[in-house]
Design brief:
Elements: E1 9-15, E2 19-26, E3 31-38, H1 42-51, E4 54-59, H2 67-75, E5 79-81, H3 89-103, H4 110-157, H5 162-170, H6 182-214, E6 229-233, E7 236-240, H7 242-250, E8 256-265, H8 267-272, E9 278-284, H9 288-297, E10 302-305, H10 312-319, E11 324-327, E12 334-336, E13 339-343, H11 344-353, H12 357-370
Parallel strand pairs: 1-4, 4-5, 8-9, 9-10, 10-11
Antiparallel strand pairs: 1-2, 2-3, 6-7, 8-13, 12-13
Helix pairs in contact: 1-6, 3-4, 4-5, 6-12
């Protein structure tokens, strides 16, 4: 009877960097893939790994696993292997040379060598256990074979065809593995996410353009008029940190961007009352997705919430509409006259810190999908 085809279980060796090295072995220690590429994105690496089997372990040649390797292990729900101590370059070269001379595998650069060494190191740590498993299974299969033959003969006497009997007795509960359609779904989603990233990048560029224009529209400052950070209270707003802001005022305030402030923001208010590209609110009332869509239609780029930490789901929902959400402590409000503003320098700092937030919010969904 011909064995059914299924993706091989694999051990992945990864050497991340500007040029990434990738090695994939099966559980017999045979090379399935050895490759390196410049500017390899995480999504592309995931697709390459899944195209070449069902990974169970990812390995690095570093004692402290690089961040990229840890993130990939988490994305694919893989066991992470790190050596107990980092080997010398001489020993690494010796292991690689011995392996390539036996197998004929060609190593083209140092990144492939590092990835292959990591995968071999991981495989060798299990090698003896693998051999014991093979011997144990062979002994048990010998006993199972005799029992299976006897049962199939018995079924034939009862009128059950041998092929059906063998198939039913060998059928086991399905083992969770990578869906055959997963790679295609990932590829389609990757293309869609890239398109969205391009749109969001364009929106970020538009925001930077607005910030540059705001430099020429500096709000009038009244001499001697104090500034303060604004924080919300149930009865309205109050001024805090006056002394610190007065000191900053003496050295120059820089440019400011006016902010629309709401104690309670609804989608209706977002549609009818928002005038500026930066909005602050104590609370959101109603469906957040509708509120963010309304804000996006009003060309709002930044949403400030009076909370200690913005929920991740809220951040992702806003990111889909091209809006950055942050806590008030990250972008404090300042009062001049009767109006509220944020400093242009604070906005630039926020954008620099969270420049990749919109992209990350989208790619994280791909990460969650791939780890199901």
């Amino acid at each position: 009877m011909q064995a059914s085809k299924h993706p091989p279980k694999t051990i992945v060796g990864l050497d991340p960097g500007t040029t990434t090295g990738l090695a994939i072995l099966n559980l017999n220690g045979e090379v399935i893939l050895l490759k390196s590429l410049r500017h390899w994105s995480r999504s592309e690496i995931i697709l390459e790994i899944l195209n070449n089997g069902n990974p169970v372990l990812i390995a690095t040649d570093r004692f402290e696993a690089p961040r990229a390797v840890k993130e990939l292990a988490q994305a694919l729900s893989l066991t992470l292997f790190t050596p107990e101590k980092e080997d010398t370059l001489e020993n690494k070269s010796s292991i690689i040379s011995e392996f390539t001379s036996k197998t004929g595998v060609k190593v083209e650069d140092e990144h492939q060598a590092s990835a292959l060494y990591a995968a071999l190191k991981a495989f060798n740590s299990f090698k003896n256990d693998f051999k014991n498993i093979e011997l144990s299974v062979e002994r048990r299969m010998s006993d199972f074979k005799s029992i299976l033959i006897e049962e199939v003969k018995s079924d034939l006497i009862r009128g059950i065809p041998p092929e059906r009997s063998i198939r039913e007795r060998l059928t086991q509960p399905p083992v969770q593995s990578v869906d055959t359609t997963l790679v295609d779904q990932l590829r389609k989603q990757l293309l869609e996410e890239r398109r969205k990233v391009e749109v969001l990048t364009l929106r970020l560029e538009n925001l930077r353009s607005e910030l540059r224009k705001a430099e020429s529209r500096k709000p009038a400052e009244k001499e001697g008029e104090p500034q303060s950070v604004i924080s919300f209270t149930p009865g309205g707003s109050r001024l805090t940190s006056l002394n610190g802001l007065l000191k900053e005022q003496e050295t120059g305030l820089g440019e400011h961007i006016q902010v629309d402030v709401f104690t309670e923001l609804t989608s209706k208010k977002a549609k009818n009352e928002v005038k500026n590209s930066v909005v602050a609110a104590k609370t959101l009332k109603g469906d957040p997705s509708k509120i963010f869509k309304a804000l996006s239609s009003k060309n709002v780029k930044i949403m400030i919430l009076d909370v200690d930490t913005v929920e991740e789901e809220l951040t992702e929902e806003a990111a889909r509409q091209g809006i950055l959400v942050c806590e008030m402590k990250s972008l404090p409000l300042e009062k001049m006259g009767e109006e509220l503003y944020v400093r242009r320098s604070d906005v630039k700092d926020l954008l620099n810190k969270r420049r990749s937030l919109l992209t990350t919010a989208l790619l994280d969904r791909l990460k969650e999908f791939s780890s199901r």
